[in-house]
Specification:
The protein is an alpha+beta fold. The chain is about 35% helix and about 25% strand. Strands 11-15-18-25-22-21-19-20 form an 8-stranded mixed sheet, with helices on both faces.
């Protein structure tokens, strides 16, 4: 019930936000939608050309919203027919709302609901003394029409009206005035289409009370410190260039080390359960995707390739699975050959919208720790269990909590899927049996199945307990049928294999983003681009420092030495800024005693040790990925 009440408050605050914008910022601001999502609420606007609404205006906007909550404005719900609803929206000057209204009508809606905020008519003069003139002019016309259709009483004056179906609080006084704030501004194309105008999205935060709000703000401040869009520049991990193309990261030497270590670890894990790495081309004929079904479903998100010597249609591939079917199909297979397990780190390409390209969160070019197992039906459980085992091991290594989400199909939208309804129950039941029999905790997600088949999704939690879906295991009976894949069974008959699509951490590039924020840029030794930084206190200790460097490099450790003319304090500061796991200080005492003075970045410990012990500990930590 508490969650339901909070959702009501957040949705009501979206209306209060829109009212505050029109009263105090821009009475002619055009409205789109204003839902409640997670801990947020927002409203989308197109401001008048002469209005410059910026982050610094949010504090004043919050004050206006707080003023509205204290005005004890009730939320009245009215229902009307299409004709009256359209007239209300015309008087509001909201052409986008007419578009919504017509959509609802096309879905056989005959009754349309609005929510109206009101104040006593005799209080209008002093409550609205600071309101923008056009706001009063507009709402006087709206009030006149509402009175004429009996939707309003004379002793009430409507301050805001919006077409809406959601439940709201009964009165703005139910909302604690210091439990919310207007928080940030973003921009998005209306309906995510570049053909439509760009809209300003004003976000607000709302919680049960002031303490909860402050607690969440502290959490967000920590998240901002960990933002990979800031840390990647400080740590010099990758860059973007407009001359190359947005959404295509260029990895520096340091960033490439992290990416390669993620891939190397995944390869070790999947090799342990029998996967063999292949390499496939970045492009292929459209015909391959037509057979697989991707052409029909994803053509608009795929990148076309033009050949100077062919009129055929080609695409950069958005996924590996169709090509992997061709590796399987290239040889005759027996039941004794199965399962055939293939993994691949080839680049993939997707034509993402420019507004959705943010750091490493979404890219136009990336790879995946992609794997496919072609197996018999009696091998499905064993294949799933082995993948779940290496996922468990990977998450323990990265220090992440996780849960499994069982994603099921939406029976009301059969056109979304390539698989036949009569087999869905069998496959979904099978996946659930695997989880139950192996005592793996899971949640169900209705309607989240892939186009091929139901799936298990890995949802990981980082050090701030934020959730990310990072990988998936999908059961697929359809693609092998489409490509006419077969194997000869023990009875001599040809049968169709089952195809299991799986990933461990998904895209290494996207996972790098998660890890940067998970570790706050302070990577464990095995992932750190520079694992050990030697800092000679003065130039005459550089030779001894180089001797130590040689010993460390002989054990394949990534070592750097700061032999610059910087002061000792600046050298230490530079090493700490790049979050090197171990800073080794070399001075007269260390050279004399053949010891090392160590500073650990993550634990902040400082201690002395001998060279061999330090090297052995680092090698062990690196080898075991502690």
């Amino acid at each position: 019930m508490e969650a339901e009440n909070l959702l009501k408050q957040r949705h009501s605050l979206a209306h209060i936000l829109a009212q505050a914008i029109q009263r105090s910022v821009d009475p002619l601001a055009r409205l789109w939608i204003g839902p409640a999502i997670d801990v947020w609420f927002y409203y989308d606007f197109i401001f008048s050309d002469w209005i410059q609404f910026k982050e610094e205006n949010l504090k004043d906007l919050t004050k206006m919203m707080q003023k509205i909550t204290k005005e004890n404005q009730p939320f009245h719900r009215i229902e009307t027919d299409y004709k009256k609803a359209k007239e209300i929206i015309k008087i509001m000057w909201e052409e986008f709302k007419i578009e919504l209204l017509d959509e609802f009508k096309s879905q056989w809606e005959t009754v349309f609901s609005f929510y109206i905020n009101t104040i006593p008519t005799d209080a209008k003069a002093w409550l609205f003394k600071d309101a923008k003139p056009w706001y009063l002019k507009k709402y006087e016309k709206i009030n006149e029409y509402l009175l004429s259709i009996g939707a309003l009483q004379q002793w009430n004056f409507a301050t805001f009206i919006d077409m809406c179906e959601w439940p709201h609080v009964e009165n703005t006084k139910e909302i604690i005035s210091d439990s919310f704030k207007a928080d940030k501004i973003a921009w998005a194309y209306r309906r995510w289409s570049e053909k439509n105008p760009m809209m300003s999205r004003v976000y607000g935060l709302a919680f049960e009370n002031k303490e909860k709000l402050k607690e969440y703000e502290a959490f967000m401040e920590e998240a901002r410190k960990r933002d990979h869009r800031r840390l990647w520049k400080e740590l010099w991990l990758f860059v973007f260039s407009e001359l190359v193309w947005p959404g295509l990261p260029l990895y520096t030497h340091r960033g490439n080390i992290i990416r390669k270590e993620i891939i190397r670890y995944t390869n070790e894990l999947q090799s342990d359960i029998g996967y063999e790495e292949v390499h496939t081309p970045n492009m292929n004929k459209a015909e391959l995707f037509k057979i697989s079904g991707h052409y029909e479903k994803y053509k608009e998100d795929m990148m076309r390739v033009i050949s100077n010597y062919s009129d055929e249609e080609y695409f950069l591939k958005p996924m590996n699975c169709p090509q992997h079917t061709q590796i399987y199909a290239a040889r005759q297979r027996s039941y004794t050959d199965l399962p055939v397990r293939i993994s691949d780190f080839a680049n993939l390409y997707r034509d993402e919208k420019p507004g959705e390209l943010i750091g490493l969160t979404r890219l136009r070019c990336f790879c995946q720790d992609d794997g496919h197992s072609f197996c018999r039906e009696d091998q499905i459980k064993e294949e799933f269990i082995s993948v779940l085992w290496i996922i468990k091991k990977a998450m323990a290594t990265y220090g992440m909590q996780y849960n499994i989400r069982l994603s099921l199909w939406d029976p009301n939208k059969r056109e979304k899927y390539l698989w036949e309804p009569e087999t869905r129950e069998k496959s979904q039941k099978l996946l659930e049996e695997i989880l139950v029999e192996n005592k793996i905790e899971y949640t169900k997600a209705e309607w989240e199945a892939a186009i091929y088949w139901p799936k298990m999704d890995l949802v990981a939690k980082d050090s701030l307990w934020r959730e990310f879906q990072i990988s998936t295991i999908q059961l697929d009976f359809i693609m092998p049928q489409r490509f006419k894949l077969t194997y000869k069974d023990s009875d001599g008959w040809e049968k169709t294999p089952v195809m299991i699509h799986r990933a461990i951490v998904g895209s290494p590039e996207r996972f790098m983003w998660i890890l940067i924020e998970h570790y706050a840029g302070a990577f464990p030794l095995w992932l750190a681009p520079v694992q050990i930084q030697l800092v000679p206190v003065a130039w005459n200790f550089v030779d001894y420092a180089n001797q130590i460097v040689a010993k460390l490099k002989a054990q394949w450790l990534r070592v750097s030495i700061d032999d610059s003319d910087n002061s000792f304090s600046k050298k230490i500061r530079n090493a700490e800024l790049t979050k090197v796991p171990y800073i080794v200080i070399v001075w007269e005492k260390e050279e004399t005693t053949k010891t090392l003075s160590i500073r650990e970045y993550r634990s902040k410990k400082q201690y002395e040790t001998n060279i061999d012990e330090f090297i052995n500990n680092c090698v062990e930590e690196f080898k075991n990925r502690r």
